[in-house]
Amino acid sequence: MSGFQVEPGSLRTSAEGLDDVVDRFAETLERFEQTITAFGQPWGSDDLGSIIGELYLGIHDLAMSCFESNGELLGEFAHGLHTMADSFEAAETEIADRMAQLQNLLGGG
Length: 109
Prior knowledge:
InterPro entries: ESAT-6-like_sf. It comes from Asanoa iriomotensis. This is PE domain-containing protein. This protein has helices at 8-38, 47-105. By secondary structure, it is mainly alpha-helical. The chain has one domain (9-105): Orthogonal Bundle (Helix Hairpins), CATH 1.10.287.
């Protein structure tokens, strides 16, 4: 694989940016939920209002579940980027240490 280069710092920067997006998304979703809840049940309590309310609640719950799942998935991606950065950094450190050991064994240290 010619030209392949990974910068752990860049991975960490991307992970931190994604962490920030996840946090802002969660805050925005919470504010949205508070705003929607503040409206109460404007459809009323008669037969038609009850049907509309049931439909609304089902759709609302499904939408919120999707939003929350997407936020969790983005959080998992951020965690993966952090893990990748740690892994690449550990590999680079191990390679440097082994090269130093080899240099010492060959009498170049």
